[in-house]
Amino acid sequence: MGQIIERLAIERGHEIAAKYNSQHPFTAESCVQADVAIEFSSPELAVDHLKLCIENQIPVITGTTGWYSHYDDIKAHCNHHNSAIFTATNFSLGVNLFFEMSKRLTQLMTNQPYTLSIEEIHHTEKKDAPSGTAITLAETVISASNILKNWDLINDKPSDEFENQSMLPIKALRIEGVPGTHSLQFESEVDIITLEHEAKSRLGFATGAVVAAEWIVGKTGVFGMRDLLNFEN
Predict the structure, then answer these.
(1) Structural domain boundaries of the chain?
(2) Which CATH architecture does the domain made up of 93-198 adopt?
């Protein structure tokens, strides 16, 4: 992701102030001033990275998932320092359109005899399961449903544990070389309706991250893809 983002940023006329990785970590000592930072790392590193950017008044775009139990703390930290952060579980335009379509389809299915489920597939290097995208999809569907109340990962669990109609099951698969596939399935006794998004590569994610970085400059607050894409309007 870092290499693709760097290439896209340069193609769009931007200068790379610094690059960080496991050999050259992002710390208070190595931090440089920049108009914006783009953070794609790992769940165990993301929180410290975000706090360091916030404290140095560097607007930060993060595509790392698996750290959202600290979200409220990061949001408060950002507001306290009057800085800016843009978080997204997925920066792809197509995926965020997929979220909106899933919300609408779920609303149309209200009181219809269908049960819902989610399946996500990622590359074997993906550390968190379910993916942040699958969690966002689940939360979007639950918010649009008058039956579903929560979600749960069903991998390796007996099927009789998931007969509760208020629970949305998620199945997470890890297969070599898969950038990311997410599907939302509606199943009845007579048919199955499936809404699916399949990423061809990581280019869509990287493009969204660079566009978000261009958009956030000069702003303060906590933002996401709905703000960038202006779905409310």
Answers:
(1) 2-91+202-229, 93-198
(2) 2-Layer Sandwich (3.30)
Q: At a CB cut-off of 8 Å and minimum separation 6, what does 19 contact?
A: 2, 6
Q: How many Å apart are CA 120 and CA 98, to the nearest integer?
A: 13
CB atoms within 10 A of CB 2: 13
Residue 200 one-letter amino acid:
K
- State the Cα–Cα distance between residues 182 and 197, nearest whole angstrom: 5
Cα distances (angstroms) measured from residue 50 to each of 30, 54, 82, 189, 211 = 14, 6, 14, 47, 19
Q: Which CATH architecture has domain 2-91+202-229?
A: 3-Layer(aba) Sandwich (3.40)
Per-residue pLDDT of 148-202, as tens digits, reads: 999 999 987 665 555 678 999 999 999 998 989 999 999 999 999 999 999 888 8
List the one residue out of 35, 8, 2, 36 whose CA is nearest residue 21.
Answer: 2
Which residues are known to be catalytic?
122, 126
The 3-state secondary structure of 5-49 reads: HHHHHHHCCCCCCCCCCCCCCCCCCCCCCCCCEEECCCHHHHHHH
pTM metric for this prediction: 0.74
Contact by Cβ (8 Å): 140, 104: no
- Residue 172 corresponds to which tokens in the numbers above? 């997470």
Residue-wise pLDDT for 126-147, tens only, equals 878 899 899 999 999 999 999 9
